[in-house]
Design brief:
The structure is a homodimer of 337-residue chains.
Chain A lengths: L2 H8 L3 H9 L6 H14 L5 H8 L4 E6 L7 H12 L5 E6 L5 H13 L5 E5 L6 H9 L3 E4 L9 E5 L1 H15 L4 E5 L5 H16 L9 E3 L4 H12 L7 E4 L2 H13 L9 E6 L15 E4 L2 H16 L8 E4 L2 E3 L9
Parallel strand pairs in A: 1-2, 1-3, 3-4, 4-5, 5-11, 6-7, 6-8, 8-9, 9-10
Antiparallel strand pairs in A: 10-12
Helix pairs in contact in A: 1-2, 5-12, 6-7, 8-9, 10-11
Chain A binds a DNA duplex (30 and 30 nucleotides) through helix 2 and helix 4.
Chain lengths: 337, 337
DNA sequence: GCTAAACTTGAAATCGATTTCAATCATACT
DNA sequence: AGTATGATTGAAATCGATTTCAAGTTTAGC
C-alpha cells in the first residue's frame, strides 16, 4: 500500500497524511487520529527507502565487526538494540575485509558515501588510529568505544582501564604480592596501553618497576590465558599473582595453575577484568574470581544513546565519557604463602 | 557527488553512466572503463537509498536478535559477514522487544513492510513457531536456522541435533555407562526436542528407557551447567556420565564434578556439543572435552549464501540442509569405574 | 458585517538513482 | 549505393515518500 492509495482511501491528500503520521503540528487532532487509526487498520507503512531518499537520513547506525570472533560483540550490540528499539534506528553490521588498513578505510568510505548509515561506532582503537582521521574527513558522525590520542576531534566512551588495572594490581600489592604478571589484551590497542600504564603506575607508587618480562599481550581467550600463565609459572622467578585481561583469559589461567598442581588463591592469586557475560560469571568460578567489572551491555546502550545525540547535532568534542570500574574482591586473590 | 553532476563531468548522460556502473552489456568497453576509472578517481558512489527506492531491493538481510545474551550470535553473524562482503548486502540487526509473541510478530511486520530488508533469518524456532506463518503471509523470503514442524513452507538449515546426541549417548553406552544424564537447551525449542529424541533413541536401541528425571532443560551457561550437574550428582542414584548442551555448560559441569571431589573422565564422563568458539576450545579444557562439533560460523556463512539464493528467486521448499556433526572423542569420556 | 489572524488542507516540486523507449551511429550484406 | 542489422547513447518517466508554497476555511475582534 502506497501513500497515494492510502490517502485516496481516506479522502485526503498525501500531504496531509504524511504530516499526520510524522507528527507535524498543522494537522487537526481529528484528522490525525483518523489517519493513525486507519493506518493501523489498513496496515499502511511508509516505504523506508523513499523516506530515506527524501529526508537524507539513513535511519541506521553502522557497527564495524572484525573478522575474529569478537567475544564482546553480541553483548555490546544487544545493549545498543535495547536503546534503539524505540528510536526507529537500525543497526547495520559491516564486515571488515581488512587484510590491511587501506581495505578497512575503503570499507568505511563505501559505507558512508553510499549513505547507508547516519553514524558509525568503532571499537578498540589504537592511539593513532587512521580510521579517526578518515571518518572526520568523511564528515560522518562517529563515536569511539574506547579512546585514541589523535588530535582529531572524536566523541568517545571508554572505561577506566588504567584505573582498573592500577587498582587490581594495588590490591595484590596490599595482600603482600611482589612479583605480579599481567596477561594483557591485543598489542597496540589503546585499552592495552592504558592497562599497562595502570600496571606500571601501581608499581611506581610502591617504588617498584614493572618487569617487562612479566607483561604479555594477546587476544582474550581461554587458550592464550593458559599458555601465558603456564609460561610465567614455569619460570625460575615465578609470579605469585596474575592480572588477566578477561574472564575468558582467567579460565585459562586457572587451568594452568591447576595443571601445575597448585591452587588458585592459595598458591597463585588471580584477578581479571570482567565485561559481564551472561554465560560466564566470575562469581561462579571456583574459586570465585576477583574482578574489576564493567558491563559491556550497558556500554552498548549508552553508546547508542550518545550516537543518537551526535546525529541530532550535538558536538563531538563535548561527548567524552570515562566510566569507572568496580573492584570486586572474591576468593581468587589472597596473601601469598 | 550525484549522478547528474558526475555524468556531466564525463560528458555522458546519466543513463549511460548508470549502465556502465551496473554492468549492463550495451555499453562499449571503452566507455565502461572510463566511467569506472573516473568514478574511482572522483569518488562517485550511487546513493544507496535512491537505488533502493528505484529497484525495490533493500540490499540487506535482517537478523533477529533476542534480548538474552546470545552466545552464538557473534560467530553466526561473523560467518554471514564473510559471505556477504562481496555481495553488496548488509546485515541488519533488529532487536526483539518481545515481551510476548505479538510484540515479536509486530517487529517482523514493521521490518518487512517498511522494506528495510529483502529477507530475514530466524534462529532457534519452536516446532509450531508462529513466526513462520507470519513471514509466509508477509511474503518475504526467509530462512530458518534450525527447523520447525509447521506445514508452512520454509527454507531451513539445521544441524543434526538428534544424530549428535544419539551418537554421543551411544558412545557413552559403548564405554559401559548405564545411568546417563542430559543437560539440554531451552525447553520448547526444536533443537532441544531433537536432542531429547536422540537421547531417547540411543536408550531404546539398547532396550532401555531414558529416565525423565535425568533430563533437564535450561539456557547454555556455565552457571546452569554447574547447578544441574550438581543436582544430578548428589542424588542417590547418580549418573556416571553427563551429556551437556554446550561447551559453556560443560565448563559448569566440570566445576560441579570437581567440587564434589571427583575427577572428570575417571569418575564422571562428560560429552558436550561444541559450536566452535574461538575463545573457548574443547580441546584445551582439562581434561580435554569429548564433543560433537559443528561450526556456528560456517552455518552463518552458508545461511547467508542460501538467503541470497532465496532472494534471487530460488524456491524455499527446495532449500533444506541438514548438516551432520562430527563426533570427537577426547579425555572427558571413559569407561565408568 | 468585515477584516485579520489562525488553522487546515492540497498541488506540485523534489530527493537521486534506474529503465523504457526512441534515436543515432557504425558495420555488413546484397 | 542502399538497406538491414547491431551497437551505443540519451530523454524522460518512474520509484514513494517529504516539504514548500499557496489557497481555502474558521474564528476572533471591533
Amino acid at each position: 500500500m502506497k501513500l497515494r492509495e492510502f490517502a485516496k482511501q481516506l479522502g485526503l491528500s498525501p500531504t496531509t497524511v504524511s504530516r499526520a503520521l510524522s507528527g507535524y503540528p498543522e494537522v487537526s487532532e481529528a484528522t490525525r487520529a483518523r489517519v493513525a487509526s486507519e493506518a493501523m487498520r489498513l496496515g499502511y507503512r511508509p516505504d523506508i527507502n523513499a523516506v530515506r531518499l527524501k529526508t537524507g537520513r539513513a535511519g541506521a547506525i553502522g557497527v564495524m565487526m572484525g573478522r575474529s570472533g569478537e567475544i564482546h560483540f553480541a553483548e555490546f550490540v544487544s545493549g545498543m538494540a535495547q536503546r534503539l528499539e524505540t528510536a526507529d534506528t537500525d543497526i547495520l553490521i559491516t564486515p571488515i575485509t581488512a587484510h590491511n588498513d587501506d581495505d578497512e578505510i575503503q570499507a568505511y568510505r563505501r559505507l558512508v558515501e553510499s549513505r547507508r548509515v547516519d553514524a558509525v561506532i568503532i571499537h578498540s582503537p589504537r592511539p593513532q588510529d587512521p580510521r579517526i582521521e578518515m571518518l572526520n574527513s568523511l564528515g560522518v558522525p562517529f563515536l569511539i568505544h574506547g579512546r585514541s590520542e589523535t588530535e582529531h576531534v572524536h566523541a568517545w566512551l571508554d572505561i577506566d582501564n588504567e584505573g582498573a588495572v592500577r587498582r587490581s594490581t594495588d590490591h595484590l600489592f596490599d595482600l603482600g604480592h611482589r612479583r605480579i604478571a599481567m596477561i594483557n589484551g591485543l598489542r597496540g590497542k589503546t585499552y592495552s596501553i592504558h592497562r599497562e600504564q595502570g600496571f606500571r603506575l601501581a608499581h611506581q607508587e610502591r617504588g617498584l618497576t614493572a618487569d617487562p618480562n612479566m607483561m604479555v599481550c594477546d587476544k582474550f581467550s581461554d587458550e592464550s590465558g593458559f599458555r601465558h600463565a603456564l609460561s610465567f609459572l614455569e619460570r625460575a622467578n615465578a609470579p605469585t599473582a596474575i592480572v588477566a585481561g578477561s574472564t575468558m583469559t582467567a579460565l585459562g589461567v586457572y587451568r594452568a595453575i591447576r595443571s601445575l598442581g597448585m591452587t588458585v588463591g592459595r598458591d597463585v592469586s588471580v584477578i581479571a577484568h570482567d565485561d559481564v557475560f551472561p554465560y560466564l560469571t566470575a562469581e561462579n568460578m571456583v574459586p570465585s574470581l576477583s574482578t574489576t567489572r564493567s558491563s559491556m551491555r550497558a556500554a552498548g546502550t549508552r553508546c547508542a544513546e550518545l550516537t543518537l545525540q551526535l546525529i541530532a547535532g550535538r558536538a563531538a568534542d563535548e561527548i567524552h565519557e570515562l566510566w569507572p570500574v568496580e573492584l570486586i574482591l572474591r576468593e581468587s586473590t589472597a596473601a601469598p604463602r
